[in-house]
């Protein structure tokens, strides 16, 4: 794989995740009611009230639903910071690709590792917070999204940490001289 293909593939991953998270932030800010609703349901554990058995021993953990707005904007602020780190790493790969520099590539990779680690921490925070409030009992689809993002983050983190492989050296071959090749026998 050439240096430029190597840098471009990492750029594509980082820019895609940065764009995805930037759109998520935009959605949180332009349609806050949707996430306020889901966060409020999670924090207040209201979805567990209709259950006689599920989550009964967890309900003491519930917070008032009015904390949903503050929580949403705190999460959006963290998402902005993480998306900026992802963009910063992506632009590092642009620079490495453009300059063809191994030193710049190593710097971009370091940025990417930090950005993806923060991306993972964001979604692990969602999983742990959701687990605390028992969201897995009634909001499995949301938990699945968070788990999927953790898996994507882990795969991306492993991907960007790869080393570019050097091109194998091509050995020139000397033309064959008569008598230098072993005789081949044909089978009957």
Explain what the structure shows:
The protein has 188 residues and is mostly helical. It has 5 helices and no strands. The mean pLDDT is 90. It comes from Pseudomonas chlororaphis. This is Membrane protein. Keywords: Membrane, Transmembrane, Transmembrane helix. InterPro entries: DUF2165_transmembrane.
Shape: elongated
Regions with little confidence, pLDDT below 50 for 5+ residues: none
Rounded radius of gyration (Å): 26 Å
Give the SSE order as H and E letters. Answer: HHHHH
Largest β-sheet summary: none
Number of helices: 5
Name the helicity range.
55-70%
Overall tally of structural domains: 1
Coarse structural class: mainly alpha
Binned strand content: under 5%
What is the β-strand count?
A: 0
* Distance between the first and last residues' Cα: 44 Å
Kindly state the mean pLDDT as a whole number?
A: 90
InterPro entries: DUF2165_transmembrane
Region (Disordered): 169-188
Organism: Pseudomonas chlororaphis
Transmembrane segments: 7-26, 70-91, 112-135, 141-160
List keywords for this structure.
mainly alpha, elongated, 67% helix, 188 residues, DUF2165_transmembrane, 5 helices, Membrane protein
């Amino acid at each position: 794989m050439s240096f430029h293909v190597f840098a471009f593939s990492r750029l594509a991953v980082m820019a895609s995740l940065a764009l995805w998270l930037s759109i998520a932030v935009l959605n949180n800010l332009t349609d806050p009611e949707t996430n306020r609703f889901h966060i409020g349901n999670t924090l207040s554990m209201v979805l567990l009230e209709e259950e006689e058995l599920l989550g009964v021993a967890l309900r003491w953990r519930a917070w008032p639903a009015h904390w949903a707005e503050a929580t949403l904007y705190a999460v959006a602020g963290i998402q902005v910071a993480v998306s900026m780190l992802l963009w910063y790493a992506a632009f590092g790969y642009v620079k490495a690709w453009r300059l063809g520099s191994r030193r710049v590539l190593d710097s971009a990779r370091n940025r990417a590792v930090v950005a993806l680690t923060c991306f993972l921490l964001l979604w692990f925070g969602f999983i742990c917070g959701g687990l605390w409030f028992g969201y897995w009992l009634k909001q499995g689809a949301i938990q699945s999204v968070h788990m999927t993002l953790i898996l994507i983050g882990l795969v991306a983190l492993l991907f960007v940490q790869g080393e570019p492989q050097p091109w194998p050296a091509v050995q020139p071959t000397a033309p064959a001289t008569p008598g230098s090749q072993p005789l081949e026998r044909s089978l009957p």
